[in-house]
Design a protein that fits this description.
2 domains, alpha/beta, 367 residues, homodimer, globular, two-stranded antiparallel sheet
């Protein structure tokens, strides 16, 4: 059942986003987006176990090959990307082939990058199986692999021809990953839709219970909001930066902690809490707004993980590496109000330093 | 001195093509196309020897790094591409950096692919130093690296912000490479401009003498013709295929011979001769046209190299691998007249086989 179908329009291409349930049992969702007679599915063992067979059954009329990558962001590398390209060549895939990413953000990023580069670009379909990927990573065409020196150093912007987000996929997702995905969901309300934020306040327990209609509304809303932003700034040159709310601080937390100690979404949640409190310090958010935001994060069981909170100096260092501080100028995404994010250079490095030192002392999620 | 400046317009981007002489001594040609404060020049020893210093002098106000790749198409690999990306990371290049390809087609292809993939796309400038690159490879945004199993298996379409073609670069080009480039020049006349073909008939000796004004007219005309075609079919989905006149047959010749035994342009010249004679067999070209074409190729000192002419069966096998024969259907670029190329599936495999067997017997360039 399709709950919502959205179309993003780019210069010469459209991307159709389907949100619903049991979408792999409906051939008319996937099949019209397959252009040639060949398909390469890129997936992971834990995902394949649940969803590979139904997908293959749907594709019985095509030459359908499968490549399984090892699990984890640490394998989002050039080596694994080359494996996909080698497999395409080994199985004689033509330029008209379709690559299908069946998995979370890591699978989507690396598969999209392979699709963009094989014979100067093949058809590409995203079937995201994690909440983060359904609401964020799978939409907008950012593809990438990591480098020893940093995340997403190589990649291109390459749009999938469709994104198929089935809420039932989330039923097999580890609970902690589901929760982490809620940070991105809350982000959309904060950044660009106050009505959605209010809806989240009312429906968080139904979301946590993975009630299908609630999940579908949340994912469809986030997908439509992201689609709006991405269509206005496909190349990530300006407006799209507002979607990084919480991510700059979040990245410093990820850098300070070992892989898997803190998940991306968990780090983003703390980052959102910090951005919220800093926005309040500037007088942009009322203390009531701050309370609502921190309460919603807490209600989603976010901001609870035990992790290393970096020193203010470490925060500043990562931000400098990320070019969020450049030639003494800060670039931060903060909140003017619930539903309105802005990019600002109004905070000085000294002000940020003292804010972060205080936060480290008092514990980030205290109100 | 700028002889001609052409602008190609794509969806969200323009590409300016400058043809002239002593263009590196004019800061107002290159500098306006550099966006950030960093530049990475990708080049080869034999080119660097002549042109690196003047280019670096022009860029003294920028962080200017240089990476030198080994010479030859056999190094257009993922490994060398990774070297460029590693160098960008090692020298802390930001997304605002500019990559400059200073060299022939191989340098342009691999540098463009690196520029497209570094941090999801940086600014990219082509300074082609070979005739093939100035009239063909540097224009249109095709980037690529080779794979052990075939040429250009990986790559993207990525437009340079400008192409700077200085005819004086051709003065240091090995004579054989210059001659090979003339095959592509003749191709443009045959494919889409009968007037230019007539001009070439009159001016071939001045071209061979590398007379500056003649070179500039030839290169500027080819660049403008390619620009017209590419603007109508950037993604190489249809119209752009006509630019492959002679290339399908040429590729079979390249495959049958060791690297450097036959140069790309030399193979294309024989391919053009074959396409010409096959077009005549279909009754599309008069015997007078055939004579004119073969004479122009001979006047350019093309079609003279000693090499292995493959058997008809080998030709057919390579064409099948190149997908020029698919499910029994042939796709050939042939000539309706001088100045008009078409893509046709009118020739049967049997007809092609007997044509190629005859050509092998009588020697390709006999009239």
């Amino acid at each position: 059942m399709i709950y919502q179908s959205t179309a993003l329009h780019f210069d010469k291409q459209s991307c159709h986003i389907y949100v619903g349930e049991n979408l792999l049992s409906q051939p008319d969702v996937l099949i019209p987006h397959i252009t040639g007679h060949q398909v390469m599915i890129v997936t992971q063992d834990t995902i394949a176990e649940h969803y590979l067979k139904p997908l293959q059954a749907l594709l019985s009329d095509y030459q359908c090959d499968v490549i399984t990558l090892p699990q984890g962001e640490q394998y989002k590398t050039i080596e694994q990307w080359l494996k996909i390209l080698d497999a395409l060549i080994a199985h004689n895939h033509e330029r008209s082939t379709t690559l299908i990413a069946l998995g979370g953000g890591m699978i989507g990023d690396i598969t999209g990058f392979a699709a963009a580069c094989y014979q100067r670009g093949t058809n590409f379909i995203q079937i995201p199986t994690s909440l983060v990927a359904q609401v964020d990573a799978a939409i907008g065409g950012k593809t990438a692999v990591n480098h020893a020196t940093g995340k997403n150093k190589m990649g291109v912007i390459y749009q999938p021809s469709c994104v198929i987000s089935d809420v039932n996929f989330l039923k097999t997702l580890p609970e902690r990953e589901f929760i982490a995905g809620l940070a991105e969901v809350i982000k959309y309300g904060l950044v660009c839709d106050a009505t959605f934020f209010v809806w989240l306040e009312k429906n968080m327990s139904a979301l946590l219970a993975k009630e299908n209609k609630t999940l579908q509304h949340a994912i469809a809303t986030c997908a439509a909001l992201k689609a709006q932003v991405v269509q206005q700034d496909e190349k990530d040159l300006g407006l799209r930066h507002i979607l990084n709310l919480g991510h700059t601080f979040g990245h410093a937390l990820e850098t300070a902690n070992e892989y898997q100690v803190i998940l991306h979404g968990e780090a983003v949640a703390i980052g959102i809490a910090l951005a919220t409190k800093l926005s309040a310090e500037l007088g942009w958010l009322t203390s009531k707004d701050v309370t609502r935001i921190l309460q919603l994060l807490a209600q989603a069981n976010l901001v609870k993980t035990v992790f290393d909170f970096p020193s203010a100096a470490d925060f500043i260092r990562t931000m400098r590496q990320d070019k969020k501080i450049h030639a003494g100028k800060l670039n931060l995404i903060l909140l003017k109000s619930i539903g309105v994010a802005v990019k600002t250079s109004q905070v000085s490095e000294a002000q940020l330093m003292s804010f972060l030192e205080n936060e480290k002392k008092r514990g980030v999620i205290s109100e």
